[in-house]
Amino acid sequence: MAAPPSAIVERAPSEPEASGNVIVFENVSIAFENKPVLDGISFCLPKGESKAIFGVAGSGKSTILKMALGLLKPDNGHIYVLGEDVTQMSEDALFDIRRKVGIVFQESALFDSLTVRENVAFRLLEEGNISDDEVEKRVRQALSFVELENTVDKFPAELSGGMRRRVAIARAIITEPEILLYDSPTGGLDPVTSTTIIQLIVKQRDVYKTSSLLVTHRLQDAFTMASHYFDRKTNEMRPLPPGARSEVPMAFLILRDGKVIFDGGAHELAQSKDEYIREYIS
Amino acid sequence: MELISPTEFVKDTVQTVQDYAQLAGQSVANLFRYPRYFADTLQQADLIGVGSLPIVVLTGFFTGAVLALNSSTTLQRFGSLSLLGQLVSVGMVRELGPVLTGLMVAGRNSSGMASELGSMVVTEQIDAMRALGTDPMKKLITPRVVSTVFMLFFLTIISDLLGLVGGGSVARGLLGMDWHQYWSTAWQALTFQDVFMGLVKPLLFGFIISTVGCYYGISARGGTQGVGRATTQAVVASSVFILLVDFFATKLLMAIFGYQ
């Protein structure tokens, strides 16, 4: 492995379609009310990899996820998702891309007037060409993945914060998307529930090989993801044996003042000499 | 109160008008695009139409009654009490029925739409819907516009009828007029132009109520306080719009029909 970057290091994206990258940010900038939030950032997410995005509050982490889905348009730069430039697409064209990408919002964003079943099945029901039996089967499967089969007829208001987050994960994965975006999935949750959520994300990464971007404030969540794998036999997350950590497709990206100051693996991060990064991870 | 520069004010105003026009235009254009949400439209029609029925019935009945009561003293002075039915029917059908029904429905539903959609915006449900591949314009706004326009048309007819019944009750019960005379003058006074004018207005008002309510809801910002502000603005703006459009629509239709 190369020496860790101590100054601003950005991984230059190559040809998005040919490189096997499912998401590519190229020199992306965005400002809100004339205040720059992201200033020419570039990074890429290779197929099958999970990348945790860190930064202080207001550093543009959630904005990155929303721009990747075309919910926000950057002021400058290009964003390629599955080879398509989402910055140039109309809202109608974006709906096709969004069908291949799942997102878990910070506060779950479940539809409060719909039951858990209707929330999880929302995308299938909207597509409208799937039989009721098939919808029910897939809802049960998705809810079984997050271990919440018994909540199908409940409304979001009847669930705890952790359960809502798990239902949001079930809603995101029901169509087996190629990419998953998690916006602070463990934010505001107790350590036990947080570990359950991280276990589900690791399961999705290791069992279904889904590429993902994970926005989080909790460094320990990302380190858990980098140091654990999902064991299908025991259906549990287990620590990787010593020396096997580089085998997990997990990367870290740190934002500061609108720039990417680190983009690399757990080992590089731990070895970083950058003062800000050292302080951040300590 | 925060002061803003005139340039910013003009920019914001132009942006607001542009966004509203875009939303209103898209809500109509979506009628010709797939998917169409019939179930959502029916659900909204039930909420807006059937739900507004009690206030519309009460408003219509008592407006007709008070119109008859107020007019009777003037008509009696000129010995023309027999024209009471004519006055109530033309007043209700051409003006009071559509406007008061519009204002009542605006108060109830424009605020409801703004608060519902506003809450969905601040809890990221609108973003979630877009992220799940569904166009909120098609799923949330067009059904509300269609059902409000459709239901306000029928609510206005009910209000007009109840207004005539209210006027008739006063004429018969308090003024001792002949029931048959009241109804025959009320019926005969109505021309095609009056009825047309009275039925075009609810279509315009329904469009205003729903698009203004949806616009303020979908552009709500700033958490629960923003939702509250959007709700108030929706009621105020839709009520003012109704009164403005009522004047211009009346003037235009009078010119078309050659009223003097």
Describe the structure.
The complex is a heterodimer of chains A (282) and B (260). Chain A is α/β, with parallel strands linked by helices and 282 residues long. Chain A has a domain at 104-176. In chain A, 33% of the residues lie in helices and 26% in strands. In chain A, the strands form three sheets. A six-stranded mixed beta sheet of chain A has the order 6-7-8-3-11-12, with helices on both faces. Chain A has a four-stranded antiparallel beta sheet with strand order 2-1-4-5, with no helix packed on it. A two-stranded antiparallel sheet of chain A has the order 9-10. The mean pLDDT of chain B is 94. Chain B has one domain (36-244). The longest helix of chain B is centred in the N-terminal third of the chain and has 40 residues, at 38-77. Chain B starts with 5 loop residues before the first helix and ends with a helix. The chains are: A alpha/beta (282), B mainly alpha (260). The interface between A and B is medium-sized, with 24 and 13 residues.
Notable traits:
heterodimer; A: 282 residues; alpha/beta; 6-stranded mixed β-sheet; B: 260 residues; mainly alpha; 8 helices; 0% strand
Distance between the termini of chain A: 22 Å
Into which percent range does the helicity of residues of chain B fall? over 70%
| Mean of all residue-level pLDDT scores of chain B | 94
Strand proportion of chain A:
25-35%
Q: Give me the Rg of chain A, rounded.
A: 19 Å
- Biggest beta-sheet profile of chain B: none
Tally of alpha and pi helices of chain B: 8
Summed up:
The complex is a heterodimer of chains A (282) and B (260). With 282 residues, chain A is α/β, with parallel strands linked by helices.
List the helices and strands and how they pair.
The complex is a heterodimer of chains A (282) and B (260).
Chain A: E1 21-32, E2 35-46, E3 50-54, H1 61-68, E4 76-81, E5 84-85, H2 91-98, E6 101-104, H3 116-120, H4 122-127, H5 132-145, H6 161-173, E7 179-183, H7 191-208, E8 211-215, H8 219-227, E9 228-231, E10 236-239, E11 250-256, E12 259-264, H9 266-271, H10 275-281
Parallel strand pairs in A: 3-8, 3-11, 6-7, 7-8
Antiparallel strand pairs in A: 1-2, 1-4, 4-5, 9-10, 11-12
Chain B: H1 6-29, H2 38-77, H3 84-122, H4 125-131, H5 136-173, H6 179-189, H7 192-218, H8 223-257
